[in-house]
Amino acid sequence: MSPASPVAVIDLARRRVRRASLHRNLEAVAFGTREKLSIDVREKDDDFALVLDQITKPLACDNVGLQRLMAEFRNSGIADAAIERLSAKSPSARRQSARLLGAVRMTQAVTLLAPLLESKDRVVVDAAARALGRIGGAQSAQMLLMAIQRIGLRRTLIGELARAAPDLFLEVVLSEAQRPGLKPAAALAAGLRRRQTAVGPLVALLIHGTPRERAISCRALGWIGSSAAVPAVIAAVEDPKWKVRVAAAKALRALHSGTAILDLERLRADRNRRVRQASAAALRRLLRDVKVVELTWL
User: Average pLDDT, stretch 64-73?
Assistant: First the structure.
């Protein structure tokens, strides 16, 4: 069926009307002008999950409107139905249920969402990860860390770990002995959060970590942008591993550290081509920044 056919146009219009109706009903419950919902979560499409996600995404966990929606989900049986469908054979059903439970921040569903992270269907895994990220808290973050250890440093899992982790959770992971693979994940997530409290643990990991941990710590420190990290990152340009030297050059570029120009100049003669390229790019950026500063003082 052609996207431009009359049937497709009519189907699209009907779907838009249904989404608009769902949006009004859900907003009415959130605003307190309506008390009950009449929704069948066994619908084959994702309209309900999509609209609910749009409404709740900007709401804080303690928002009154979100609390009303959560209460109605429990009272109406929608939450129970969604939880039941987490074990359905259909991947689309499991995905939709994960989105619903994540959208209303159903903390009771964390342990039930965790098995979805072991699914062979990547779409289901990503949906469960996003739900845990939306729910947040130490338990969600721990489930995501366990999944990362099994699966590896997948972008969605790292992003949702950064979202889910409560204050100082990642810093503790970085500071204590961990199973292989967890500190790199925590370092990336800490960098994405851009919290200054992670600078100390990341610098320690840069100094004492494995080559992989050192390279990732450089990247994370560059994202955070703390000047306190500059000395440690400058020291990393002398690292024996070329990947660490590349990461250090990129971090210094992000940190806008004019004090690193001479160190980056030395890297232009590095034996590794990628290190030379990274240092050249960083130098161009830093020299441009220096010129801008000079012009502002004229």
Answer: 89
